[in-house]
């Protein structure tokens, strides 16, 4: 492990902004959610919330539910927030570990580093220590946010620390996957598949038996929830997280000693001797590269929206109890169509997920250029327009597929419970209304790649801003100009029929202009420009 400290310092310097943004983002999630639960000062509203949380649908979407007899704000934070923060922190840990291990081997950087006085396991240990630092920063900032809002400080830091330990288990999973798979995308996909399996095991186990069954205990997510913070704190389930992390680290070290640098342990399937006749341009190549991510994204988000749809039937009961609550009045309004307003929020969630895929798929062009493959491809008889059009086409088509599939999954979940107040056509219109706004986000990302390649992170910043405006504009009292920055604001609430064709046409026009700017900028600038 010679050189571990030096590599860790380099990784911390390289990722200092990532650490900052992840910490601020998750802390903001805590702040918004805690404020919502603290506003439930009416016993009837808390009881209604507890009834909703105790339903099978919500148990599968949040957790086993503790302290429902006396549903305090702390119990609400723990029951309804732990699962989602564990998922966010786990994704953060997976991406960071693969970024500094398998991805470095894939682009050749690891071999150059290993040419110096650096031990075989230094990079892996440094990457895992980096994830420890990131999760510790998130835990400290988030615990401080919860304590500042009036929750018990000891319980708050216990909860955020437990989440950090749970996320580290999946960071160790990513370290094992990085030894097994030859490509960074494959290692990320394998790790996310394990995370999805953990989510599924926990959901099935919690639904089978109150407070979780034996099946639940196969999931690290359940170990975090079983600490029962804010209700009956117990530390021993976190010992399972520590033991699993140490075991996975040992497995990763053993596997790393049995393979060559740059190689994976899983056998790579040999390709065809000759390329297919259809693989004759940038678009088929882009499809070959991104079809797996599109499939898994559609499947994963679709499963989540399917489960979300199962709670729609129970929404009226919950909303009847919380009417008059200032926070919910700001979020949902006070009219007779509060259920449709609630569906509009689901529509926003679906659109944000689709937009995230669109932005990530567009930035694939940036990754190809940084890796040097764009310059090689353009040396062949391939125009810049064709080359850029390929990832943009996949990004647009993929975002549409994710969006409409999500809307259909939401309808299927609601229909499975017998809720038929809305037909499938209304759900499709709910999804379709956001398509021009999705085009704006993809076009903005493409324009950044063409004109300001080093500023492509602004696309993710805009996506986060879009979500904040969509959810909390009324609650935070944002002025009109701040709302109009968000493309989604112009869509309105499709579930209420609050959609104007002129606005959608304007969004489509803005998207078209951004795409034209992207092609013009990419045509004029140097390649590569990093």
UniProtKB/TrEMBL annotation:
Organism superkingdom: Bacteria
Keywords: Membrane, Transmembrane, Transmembrane helix
Protein name per its UniProtKB record: Exporter of polyketide antibiotics
Record organism: Promicromonospora citrea
Organism lineage string: Bacteria, Bacillati, Actinomycetota, Actinomycetes, Micrococcales
Membrane-crossing segments per the record: 81-101, 122-147, 153-175, 187-205, 235-257, 294-312, 342-363, 387-412, 432-452, 459-481, 501-522
Keyword ATP-binding applies: no
